[in-house]
Structure prediction request, 180 residues.
Amino acid sequence: MFEATTILAYKGVYQGKSVAVIGGDGQVSFGNCVMKGNAKKIRTLYNGQILSGFAGSTADAFSLFEMFERILEGRKGDLVRSVLEFAKMWRSDKYLRKLEAMMIVLNRENLFILSGTGDVLEPEDGKIAAIGSGGNYALSAARALDRHASIAPRELVEHSLQIAGELCIYTNTNISILEL
Prediction:
């Protein structure tokens, strides 16, 4: 079983502009062995208008990203409708629903966590979401920084992932970040 990944997303307003940021670590582990330290687990979709991140195996990630991007194209980038359609398809597909995987997708207006069980979750605060082995560490750090520090969203994501990488053995500090 592959255990790894920390994906953290932030959506909000900074200096009067709507922003969306997603970051991920680079570690891929198999049991107690680090297989790769510089994996890219985040990407942009729909002509750079949507950010996404994945926790699960790489082959599954590519399949799910491609499926979601096809839905986005058909829905002309409507994230809310695409998420709902994607969740239905993921849950109803005999093979895909057995994946132990999660995705985060966001743009400047919406932020969702998706799972193969058909879950579509918006974060309680509406602006910070995390998945993966180190997700709870990154989420805790991001909430604290959001409440008590005045830093740019990109820095908030980077520092929170750095903290998660220092605490979670399945997360490293080789961080990738994308923003809108």
The radius of gyration is 15 Å. The first helix runs from residue 58 to 74. The chain is about 35% helix and 30% strand.
